[in-house]
Design goal:
Layout lengths: L4 H13 L2 H8 L3 H15 L4 E3 L4 E3 L1 H28 L4 E7 L1 H18 L3 E7 L2 H9 L5 E6 L8 E9 L1 E6 L11 H4 L4 E4 L4 H11 L9 E3 L2 H9 L4 E5 L9 E4 L8 E8 L6 H10 L1
Parallel strand pairs: 3-4, 3-5, 8-9, 8-10
Antiparallel strand pairs: 1-2, 5-12, 6-12, 7-10, 7-11
Length: 290
């Protein structure tokens, strides 16, 4: 049975005030329109909902039972409408971001703080995966946006990419490690133990491509999933490693090794679905990064 929701709204207000005239004032309808709506609803339900007299309007037993269902239902709808309105004004809502732990810690953390200060009612959710895995999260609709290293070969044509920051990858060593500051050729660096991130990361893929473009191959001494641990192992002289320069904060025990040929710079980028509309929270967060 299909019944216009407006008929139930009229019923609710008449039942609430037990008055056709008061309901008409609240709904900004004529009293005749209110009466016609109730008659139409009673006809569709094939049952009387109100007892009418010249002095009093009361609910029938059927009307009382219907009111038990209609009142919470209309409150639920009103609550949903209010939630959406609050979401659009960023009084409430949720922002779900996919990013690697490195990008979260060394780049996004300050922006999370700023966003939370500006929009405290919006819940920030973060899913940590590698940059390559984050693309899968976005493709499945499990996150609103991702922040990734670029280039990222997993990004497909149905995704929109917005670069937000340029950074430099660098080779690093501890201050005590037996290698001078350079400049070094890639061939010379490849003769040292190389500590690097696991192969399924954009940074690791980029390093392999860098050596391959120079006709070289490398066999890492250590492969890790955590860049923090990678840097810590570099700090105890296990070898040299290759990291984004923004990860070198507060590490006076480490130094950057100069290369004879400059390493091409990379970018951090925000990636969103091309055809899906962005939430207001997503728009505001991206604006902070831009």
């Amino acid at each position: 049975m299909e019944i216009n929701l407006e008929l139930y709204k009229v019923f609710y207000h008449v039942a609430k005030y037990l008055s056709f005239s008061v309901a008409s004032q609240v709904l900004y309808l004529s009293q005749s329109a209110v009466s016609q709506s109730i008659k139409q609803l009673e006809s569709k339900l094939d049952t009387p909902l109100f007892n009418r007299s010249t002095k009093q309007v009361t609910l029938t037993p059927q009307g009382e039972k219907l009111m038990e269902y209609i009142e919470p239902a209309l409150h639920l709808i009103a609550g949903g409408e209010a939630y959406l309105k609050e979401t659009m004004t960023l009084d409430r809502g949720q922002l779900h971001i996919g990013a690697s732990d490195t990008i979260c810690k060394y780049y996004l953390l300050d922006y999370f703080k700023k966003f939370h200060h500006l929009y405290p009612g919006v819940e920030i959710r973060v899913t940590n995966r590698t940059s390559l895995q984050c693309v899968t999260l976005l493709r499945k609709g499990l996150v609103d946006l991702i922040v990734t290293n670029l280039p990222n070969n997993s990004i497909s044509e149905d995704m929109h990419v917005m670069p937000v920051q340029t950074f430099q990858d660098v080779f690093i060593a501890s201050n005590k490690y037996a290698i001078d500051s350079g400049p070094h050729t890639l061939s010379a660096l490849s003769k040292h133990p190389i500590l690097m991130l696991a192969r399924q990361t954009t940074t690791s893929n980029y390093l392999y491509q860098l050596f391959e473009s120079d006709g070289l191959s490398i066999t890492p001494s250590v492969e890790l999933g955590s860049i923090d641990l990678l840097i810590d192992l570099t700090g105890i002289d296990l070898g040299i490693s290759f990291v984004p320069d923004f990860c070198m904060k507060n590490r006076p025990d480490l130094r950057i090794l100069e290369t004879s040929v400059p390493i091409p710079r990379r970018q951090l980028g925000v990636v969103v679905p091309e055809k899906h509309p962005l939430s207001e929270a997503s728009k505001k967060f991206i604006a902070l990064l831009s």
